[in-house]
Every structure is written in C-alpha cells, then in structure tokens.
Design a protein that fits this description.
8 helices, about 0% strand, about 160 residues, elongated, mainly alpha
Length: about 160
C-alpha cells in the first residue's frame, strides 16, 4: 500500500489516528497493523472502541481536513501556497462544524449565519412611495396618450403563406 495519501504523514500523527484514516481509505486491518507497527488485535480493538465503521461522511471529511491542517501547521518553511491552503482548510473546518450543528437538530442559521441578520436591520423607506405622495407623476399622461393612439380592429393580419406574417 505505497499509495498512501500525502495528507496522512505517519511522523505527524499517532498510530491510532493514522490507522483510522487508513481504514477509511479502504485499507484492511491486517495491512494497517503491519504499516503502523502494531499487533492486529490492537488495531481491531481500536476499530471497535472508536467505532470506525459508524463514522458518517462529515466526520470522515472533518478528520481528513484536520489531519492535513495539522501537517501544514507543523511544516517548517511554509510557502505562500501552504498559507493559502491553511486558510482554505480553516474555512472548510468551520463549514463542517456548521453542518454538524445542523445535523444535530439545528436550524438554517447554523448553516448560514447571515440568515439571523436578515430581519434585524431597520427597513429602508421606499423612495418611490415617498416621492409619489409629494409630487404628482407626469409620466402617466404620456402613457395615457400613447394608449389612446393605438387602435384595435379586432382582426389579425392575413397570412400570405404558411408560417409567414
């Protein structure tokens, strides 16, 4: 299993957590035990106690985001791209926390905090309503004149050929 995800680095993570992430990636318990240097019954007990099989997608994604964030924070000599990724991972973790609160019986404001502010601001007055009361609108006269000049005969123009007007 040499194709381990680069986000999971064994030097930055304890064996138990590394084993959980490898299991979620599809590794077998025997392969995990061999890779992390533990006995197979130990890894089986971790799997049972930590309920690796019962983890939902939100928990799995959150764990992977957290692991990558820890790896980047511990990295020496960070590049601009590393700082950009750290910022992205922080925002993703915040979003994951909102989703988790919503799934645990929350409301839509847990998903989008701006919804709570939607009706708190003082309403602005409608400018069109205020101006209509103060001065008469002259545009109605023009539209009335235009409407009176249109004559309706009640018949449609004759067609010269099918599909042509």
């Amino acid at each position: 299993m040499a194709g381990m995800n680069t986000a999971l680095n064994a030097t930055n993570m304890d064996s138990r957590r590394l084993g959980k992430f490898l299991y979620w990636q599809g590794w077998r318990v025997t392969e995990i035990a061999e890779y992390v240097g533990e006995k197979e019954p130990t890894v089986h007990s971790w799997k049972k106690r930590d309920e690796w099989d019962r983890a939902d997608n939100v928990e799995r994604i959150g764990g992977a985001l957290e692991a990558r964030l820890v790896q980047l924070i511990l990295k020496e000599g960070k590049s601009g791209g590393d700082f950009k990724e750290i910022d992205l991972l922080h925002r993703q973790l915040e979003r994951q926390a909102r989703i988790q609160r919503y799934q645990d019986g929350g409301t839509e404001t847990d998903l989008n905090p701006k919804i709570a502010n939607r009706n708190t601001a003082e309403r602005k007055r409608n400018r069109a309503t205020n101006t209509a009361k103060s001065k008469p609108n002259a545009s109605w006269k023009r539209s009335e004149i235009r409407c009176s000049s249109i004559s309706m005969t009640g018949s449609w123009p004759a067609m010269s050929a099918p599909g042509r007007f």
